[in-house]
Design brief:
- This protein is of the alpha/beta class.
- It has two domains: 50 residues, Helix Hairpins (Orthogonal Bundle), CATH 1.10.287; 223 residues, Pyruvate Kinase, Chain: A, domain 1.
- 61% of the residues lie in helices and 13% in strands.
- The chain contains five helices and five strands, in the order αβαβαβαββα.
- It is elongated.
- The two termini are 30 Å apart.
């Protein structure tokens, strides 16, 4: 009976685990929808800012700004976006692997690197590998707020304008669709100079046909470039949040399915062991009856 009891205890344990993974899957599904809506809205806003920059370039404004200045990379900043929790498949490990490759590249080129990490998983992984981190953030969950991301972005803007860093790379998981998310390294500083609208093909349509700039296009550029950077940085946080929920939803779904298959296997083994034990007990009773007859 000991073997059958052990199988039954293990089956009950797996059933409890399946309840937990199923609950986590449902929670991740609910959070994913809200996070995806915010990410798509931020994407539209960022694209609209890029369109305005193109229109300003089409007017003929001299695109000269400290944030557009490309300098030789001697001091680099790297921001790594991971999650505070696990149980999301290879989400965190893919980002850590991507960041290690980037840091190894800067180390081989003898570039001084300022590393900032968001998420407990990334902090523990880089700390285990002996990588020094200047900034650590653990306050970003599945709903990052712009008010919390903006101070980080303004600090990077000030450091770049002052010449303290020559480049900013963000390592995060980019959300492309529900079925596709990939760990990428995106350069946010220096900003890419906007191309005049229609420069690729066809005549240039001046932005003055769509907008009136007051007091001038150059002054508006001074406001839009930092706003464009902050919106892109915030979108990185939003993409990371929605990608984490997708990864956790898929991982918990797979765990629930694996637990169901394990429960079926344990049930078969339990029934077989129980039947074998019942047969043995019957044989013992019949043997005792035959012994009493003799």
């Amino acid at each position: 009976m000991a073997k059958a009891r052990a199988l039954d205890r293990r089956r009950r344990s797996v059933r409890n685990i399946r309840k937990i993974t199923r609950t986590m899957e449902l929670i991740a599904t609910a959070r994913f929808k809200k996070a995806m809506d915010r990410s798509i809205a931020a994407r539209d806003y960022t694209n609209r800012l890029a369109k305005i920059l193109e229109n300003i370039a089409g007017v003929g404004a001299g695109v000269a700004h400290p944030l557009l200045e490309v300098r030789p990379t001697t001091r680099s900043a790297v921001l790594v976006l991971t999650g505070n929790r696990g149980l999301c498949g290879g989400y965190n490990s893919n980002i850590v692997r991507q960041s290690l490759a980037l840091l190894g590249q800067w180390r081989s080129e003898r570039v001084e690197t300022h590393v900032a990490v968001s998420g407990k998983r990334g902090i523990s992984a880089l700390k285990f590998r002996g990588i020094p981190m200047e900034e650590r953030y653990t306050n970003f969950e599945d709903k990052p707020e712009f008010e919390a991301v903006a101070p980080i972005g303004r600090a990077y803007l000030a450091a770049y304008s002052a010449g303290e860093i020559d480049r900013l790379d963000v390592v995060y998981t980019k959300f492309e669709s529900i079925s596709r998310q990939s760990a990428v390294t995106e350069m946010l500083l220096p900003l890419k100079a906007p191309e005049p609208a229609g420069a690729a093909s066809g005549p240039i349509q001046l932005a003055s046909q769509e907008y009136d700039f007051y007091p001038s296009a150059e002054s508006i550029l001074e406001e839009i470039l930092p706003a464009s950077f902050l919106s892109r940085l915030f979108k990185c946080f939003l993409d990371a949040a929605v990608s984490e929920q997708v990864a956790r939803m898929v991982a918990m779904k797979s765990a629930s399915e694996n637990a169901g298959g394990l429960i079926k296997d344990l049930s078969r083994r339990y029934n077989r062991a129980r039947q074998s034990q019942i047969t043995g007990e019957i044989m013992e009773i019949l043997g005792g009856v035959e012994a009493l007859k003799q």
